[in-house]
What we know:
Elements: H1 5-16, E1 20-24, E2 27-30, H2 31-47, E3 55-58, H3 64-76, E4 79-82, H4 89-99, E5 103-106, E6 120-122, H5 123-131, E7 147-152, E8 162-166, H6 167-180, E9 188-191, H7 198-210, E10 214-217, H8 223-229, E11 235-238, H9 240-248, E12 262-265, H10 272-282, E13 287-292, E14 296-300, E15 314-315, E16 320-327, E17 330-336, H11 348-353, E18 361-369, E19 375-380, E20 385-387, E21 390-392, H12 394-402, E22 407-417, E23 421-430, H13 438-448, E24 457-460, H14 474-480
Parallel strand pairs: 1-10, 3-4, 3-5, 5-6, 9-10, 9-11, 11-12, 12-13, 23-24
Antiparallel strand pairs: 1-2, 7-8, 13-14, 14-15, 16-17, 17-18, 18-19, 20-21, 22-23
The chain binds adenosine monophosphate.
Residues 153-154, 198, 266-269, 288, 290-293, 312, 363, 365, 377, 380, 469 line the site of adenosine monophosphate (AMP).
Amino acid sequence: MGKGLYQHLICRIHDAGDKVFIASEVGDYLYSDIDENAAKIQQVMMGVGVSKGSRVLVQVNKSPEAVMLYLACLRMGAIFVPLNTGYKQDEVEYFYGNAEPDLCVCEQETKDRFTCAKTVMAIDDLWQMARQQSGDVEITDLDGDDIAAILYTSGTTGRSKGAMLSNDNLRSNVEVLSEYWQWSEDDVLLHILPIFHVHGLFVALHCALWTTNTVIFHNGYNPDNVIADLPKSTVMMGVPTHYVRLLENEKFGRDVCKNMRLFLSGSAPLLTETFHEFEKVSGIKILERYGMTEAGMITSNPYDGDRVAGTVGFPLPDVDARLGNIKDGKGVLEIKGPNVFKGYWRMPEKTAEEFTDDGYFITGDISIMDDEGRVSIVGRAKDLIITGGLNVYPKEIESLIDDMDGVKESAVIGVSHPDFGEGVTAIVVPDGSVEISEDIIINDTSEKLASFKVPKRIYIVDELPRNTMGKVQKNALREEYAKIYGKEK
Ligand code: AMP
């Protein structure tokens, strides 16, 4: 018995027999369907030259068939490289050139994005061909260190880097999480996340597969559909925006959550206000955890102990975490553990830059750790604003503004300034309860903050730009407001 993730999963999958694996609008798949489908897809891929270690570049819509394709890659030891469905031709060409895949899989209507590819197949065609295969092909014997997937980081600075995740990285993380979050065979997972990202692909799907749970599979996020399926579910994973949208829906309440035992949130900070409001309305405390593409899950609030709003909990049992470059109690979180990736694909220098001399991965997340080891994320190192030579952490100012009456949320950025280097600038979304204005916010923050931290300008907008994972796109804001102080960087 080898050590690939699939090899670990297969006995569990066999034991689950005819239990439903994926329940979706387009049909159900049973646990007993998994290996047969994965084997047949493996045969099709082998037929076009894919072998162990080949990259398979995949840009497809969320579907049960896409999950089977992922499992087929795991089964044969091909490296699964999923792409955000929003990427256009130029971006696809970059990923193709970097990953050098032996096969690209896309949708029929997006084939023109892949003109650069030697071998490209629409997922429907691949599926049709798979039906005609015998399924008589061995599971590849893998080593735990073999790469299972390459996930490209969102690339907010420079070009995206491909994070190489080994079979052991993925297996160790799901093993810990299934225990930490107390998964049981009776759990039913409501799956609403995209499957090109660590959150939906690894955290959600792996936990369900490991404990052989039924997955209610939604293609895209629709609060009404979520509310309709919550009574049949016990666990949901989402990004903060998903929870905010539920709270805005009048049909959401305790009744629909009767069967729910766990709402998990991550990928972006959950506002304290959302945490409390959600508890008030549903009776359940959202469990916030923190992780990233390069390391899967890193910290989590406890299942049984206190779930504290505004914190991301404790390092997971096998994660060694510490703060580097501590200043005023804040430092960059550095981690070591079996979940930490093997480096960036074909970028050894970039990889080296992200590790300390003693082998800790530098997450880039500025954090606080209390005496018990509980972590709070207070910002991204690259978001740090330097104004008149002084460091300003946007999160501190955002929290203050968010607490003001009439404010829904805010984003604070540094914008090129002729006198200060960078000028602190706040973009604020009102909640409509009371009127807010630039003057009111500046006056209020002046009373509570050292003057160098007070925003020089405030912009009131309807909403903040966000990516699919709910992260505020500060790059887009920095670009939009680049010239407000008269000079671009
Ligand atoms: P990604 O690699 O796309 O998953 O993005 C990882 C980044 O998302 C982390 O480095 C954090 O900056 C951020 N992140 C993830 N979870 C949380 C959380 N619970 N609170 C705050 N930031 C988070």
